[in-house]
Amino acid sequence: MTQSSRAQAHDQQHGDRSDDVTGRRARNGRNGRTDSGERLAEAYGNPQPSVGSIAAHRPYAVAGPAASPGLEPDLDADLGPYPYGHDVYDDDGYGHDGYGHDGYGSRTAREPGRGDGGDDAQGDGPLPQGRFLDRERSWLAFNERVLELAEDPATPLLERANFLAIFASNLDEFFMVRVAGLKRRIATGVATRSASGLQPREVLELIWTRSRELMARHAACYQQDVAPALAEEGIHLIRWNELTDKEQGRLFTLFRQQIFPVLTPLAVDPAHPFPYISGLSLNLAVVVRNPVSGHDHFARVKVPPILSRFLEASPQRYVPLEDVIAAHLEELFPGMEVLAHHMFRVTRNEDLEVEEDDAENLLQALEKELMRRRFGPPVRLEVEETIDPYVLDLLVRELKISDAEVYPLPGPLDLTALFRIAALDRPELKYPKFVAGTHRDLAEVESASAPDIFAALRERDVLLHHPYDSFSTSVQAFLEQAAADPDVLAIKQTLYRTSGDSPIVDALIDAAESGKQVLVLVEIKARFDEQANIKWARKLEEAGCHVVYGLVGLKTHCKLSLVVRQEGDTLRRYSHVGTGNYHPKTARLYEDLGLLTADPQVGADLSDLFNRLSGYSRRETYRRLLVAPRSLRDGLVARIAKEVAHHDAGRPASIRIKVNSMVDETIIDALYRAARAGVPVDVWVRGICALRPGVPGLSENIRVRSVLGRFLEHSRVFAFGNGGEPEVWLGSADMMHRNLDRRIETLVRVTDPAHRASLSRLLEAGMSDTTASWHLGPDGGWTRHATDGDGQPLRNVQEMLIDARRRRRGSATP
């Protein structure tokens, strides 16, 4: 059934709400009142009209999704003879920074050949149309891979609960940013056909359909698999009616003492307009009847987010907070008859728009925009599948949301609450504990003293691989030692995201208070961390740090630290260039790489770049760095083209890339051209990939793999065969428009042969057919490869690295 057919069937089954609303408005005359109260009264057995109660809320006509013919477009029609089926699914994270505005609407103008199907640089003819996969579909496929980890019985049980929570959190952010941005562009008329060839409305329909399927799978995994398995292990996630009388009594006491005082029922009547429903809040829609007048009324009760979502009724028996509230609604509406209650949850547009050119103070402008974020338009309405259709109709009209944006699900809603369950102290139901050790180049394993970072770096560069190498005894110790060292004169640091109790921030404050020159470039526009970063920016300023916010129009996403130290008659610069944030907590969960070095060229490059970010500089070339938005894309394209020249000359040639996302058309086209010329191309991508591998005549020399597991694969590595003299880079940049055009990003060239060999082994392990991973096909479908031909589990690259660290704690190279 096509999406158009499904929409028609939906209308036949449920009726066209927008027409119904318009008809009721006409019938009810100039006061604009609807007959919702009458219909509710009929539904709950009261034929009397509800004058001045639930019927008095202001109606809003809801325009349903416009009919769009051919909503299952032939994405591959322009690929000529290549016969592909239709695939029906990002990030930057199992969480944060993965949703830029790439894909729709105006973008940075591209030169000829940049994603436009221009002539092939090697003279093999133009690249075919339809060569790019849709990025939103690819993001949904990424989140489906997360869901598959939750569905996998081989995943430890509490980790499965954790992956269910991650899936839900990811999808929340996807709707808040990507879907909201797409809707905004459609509404304003600036959305254009995406690089995949889909019209914006087609993409939106695709998202609605695919996300509905995945959300249903997600709920079924919890209801039918994970929750029963938890019960078998003595962890019971139950509903109110499953509690014993003793447990209910205990929770009634808890309700009276700790829950009731923070609840605020909000009525809807002529004196009380429909309340504002905050984004991601969990709510009860309550229908009550006045026994005197016989009128039915609607009210909303918000489930307080400051209270624990799962309440422990007795040891290892947990009940949702909303169940406890629902069981005691009579306490909130004394003298009224509670007819029904239904759970619902709204997702809103929570992306930020700050016009930096017009903002005298970016900090103040962002704070104002953060306040406006709370009132963004709705983009999704989740409801319990048992909701009364009349209550649903009221919510749809008041929230001005279309039927396609309503998601009926079995309760409980909002399974991000499973993060708390996953955190229970049941180590036998989790991945085996792993504690990172200090890198051997920084300190011997048996040494109990703090490592002398500067002495170690004077001997050699140190390549760090987190979380396998400890962040606290490497990067954090580097900055803490710099803050305490009287010979250190200056520290320059970028901060994109950091933890709430950040030792990094504390070290910078200590350095400033001891008289050192401290420059901190705080990216206060880091999505969903804006408020925390504003707080740290002010705290750093108050301590005497020089705090700057980067360049107008560009986010500063690079991960850089520079320490200037007096050593005799000379100044020596120590540097750190990484792929991950200076965040001690996520450093235990995110896989990242970092280079600690005293190399003068890297130090000079970082000095030049910090001067550009804090002052006035037009430097665009560096010694060992590639820097976006000026040189990074062109630098990579030039190196990809160079591999073609090496291949044509019979020299060793290869391209291997590890990134979070591969979307940029210029980079993808360069990879297509290299593959056409015969250069083998391997892409290890965690999230979105718009590149089609395995297309005859275009990309049969390209392989794409994805690895997901206990750690979030987050590092970015670029390795080139370079005619037998390997060239390897690492850094912060993903292959997306936002990273290459609208962010300050850096890659650093790795020069130590042992480090290059180590990174090469890492890439080989991730791409090996003997490693468990997902393989991307030319139709955009991902296939999981977890067992070999004999049914035996394939190698887990993350467990391999953990085992290697355990065997040789603190080795010289990752």
Automatic annotation (TrEMBL):
Annotated positions binding ATP: 170, 590, 686, 714
Organism domain of life: Bacteria
Cofactor(s) required, per the database record: Mg(2+)
One Gene Ontology molecular-function label: polyphosphate kinase activity
Reactions accelerated catalytically: [phosphate](n) + ATP = [phosphate](n+1) + ADP
Entry-linked InterPro entries: PP_kinase, PP_kinase_C_1, PP_kinase_middle, PP_kinase_middle_dom_sf, PPK_C_dom2, PPK_N_dom, PPK_N_dom_sf
Domain Polyphosphate kinase middle: 248-420
Pfam family, one: PP_kinase_N
Active-site residues, Swiss-Prot/TrEMBL: 557 (phosphohistidine intermediate)
Keywords: ATP-binding, Kinase, Magnesium, Metal-binding, Nucleotide-binding, Phosphoprotein, Transferase
Ranges for domain Polyphosphate kinase C-terminal: 452-618, 625-789
Residues reported in the UniProt entry to bind Mg(2+): 497, 527
Region described as Disordered: spans on this chain: 1-56, 90-131
CDD domains: PLDc_PaPPK1_C1_like, PLDc_PaPPK1_C2_like
Keyword Lyase part of the UniProt annotation: no
Bias type Basic and acidic residues, positions: 8-23, 32-41, 108-117
Post-translational modification: An intermediate of this reaction is the autophosphorylated ppk in which a phosphate is covalently linked to a histidine residue through a N-P bond.
Coiled-coil ranges (or none): none
EC numbers for this chain: 2.7.4.1
Keyword Secreted set for record: no
Polyphosphate kinase N-terminal domain residues: 132-237
Family named by the database record: Belongs to the polyphosphate kinase 1 (PPK1) family.
Role this protein plays: Catalyzes the reversible transfer of the terminal phosphate of ATP to form a long-chain polyphosphate (polyP).
Descriptive protein name: Polyphosphate kinase
Organism whose genome encodes this protein: Streptomyces nondiastaticus
Lineage: Bacteria, Bacillati, Actinomycetota, Actinomycetes, Kitasatosporales
